[in-house]
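[job 4471] stage=fold_predict status=RUNNING
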Amino acid sequence: AVAFAVEQLGFHAWMVGVNGTHHYAEDLLEIAAPWEFAQDPPDAGAEKVRLYRLTREAKPLFRSLAPRDLREKMAGLPAPLSLEDLARALASHLPGGPDSPAARLALAWRLNTSPECFERVELEPGRAAYRAREQAPDGPAAEEAADGRVEQNAALAEAERLFPPDTGLYRKGADPQSGTITLYFHFPQVAEKKWQDRIAQLEAVTGWSVRVHPEAHMGVLAEAARRVLPEDWVLLRNPSVDRDRRVVTVRCQVPDGATEEDFATARSHFREETGFDLELDGRGVPWLDAAAAADPHSGPAAASRMEINQAFAAVRAGLAAAGATVYRVGRKTGPGGDYIEVSFISPALAERFRQPMEELSRQTGWPLEPNPEPNQHEIKAIARSLIPPEWGLKREPAFFRERMALRVSLTSPPSVSDPGWVEVADRFTELTGCTMELG
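[job 4471] inference complete, writing structure tokens
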């Protein structure tokens, strides 16, 4: 952190990835080095960038200061010593020398994160003295893995600290073989840009590579579409998602007096929140209906429609060729007229086949819509088939329709970061379009 103001009960400081600046006096562990602002008055954004660069510079130095090796070097020194005196005593072991801000930061970082090797003697807020503990700990240093990365659970705990629920993170996983932490956000395109400082900080602090899973959470995305629409607009079906185009389409019953500007406002808010565009299905919308009526190529007339049973067969064959499992097709009547409803295992999975459905609609002359209701029985059956017997399913899984999620309670549940759980959860999403949660 870069401190820039002091008050009676604490101080103000900028931290990478943190918006707030107030900290209590007891939060200050060590003043590592003086800091000169790049400009006067200082700019918070510019100073955070400089701080991040310093942290990146200090990270390899921090890792080179192995706790037990450093403890042995400190064992013969007069004790306890302040950070400044200790840096001078260890000058030959600090790249850049004892006055280097990166070296000072790395040393303070190591001394305050390895209490099993070093004892801290508080002198005053922001100033302490340090000495080596008399006995070295048994086994490897607790927070460091053999390859120099922070231990997996400690890395995930740091991710949880940096990304509380209000950041949109709903799941995280770690792959020890590649040294990669994967973060799952509701809206990854927005989150990756908004939280880029915290993502960089997570990499700098843990030594793990960090990637953001590219797929948005379909259930939360649909809910966001519902939320941004004007209150008196009634959704006539679940929002549909085109992943390739990053577009969500809504069909609504629009009240008298509604204008294009009303939808433009909702569309702007939706794009800002999710990174997706929002489109309005023109059926039943006055200003879009008028435009469609003036366009002779806007859609097939009822007279040009394929006979219904032939259309059913064409829809089944076309979607099977696209790799979809279709449970049922049927004729339905809605505010816009007759259409063919196609039942997939879930509306979330149906969105993967939006493009072939649109093509089949053009071929048959019939509007095609996915069944908005998920096949809960089949979804639960797939979950049961994927869960290993040794985990022990305790009770019937619970399905939450509003967010297209299935919660399972297990006798011997794995960690959510366990590679086995991540593999099962990913496979479940691949097969059903829903997410699996531990209860």
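[job 4471] summary: DSSP finds 15 helices and 20 strands in the chain.
[job 4471] exit 0
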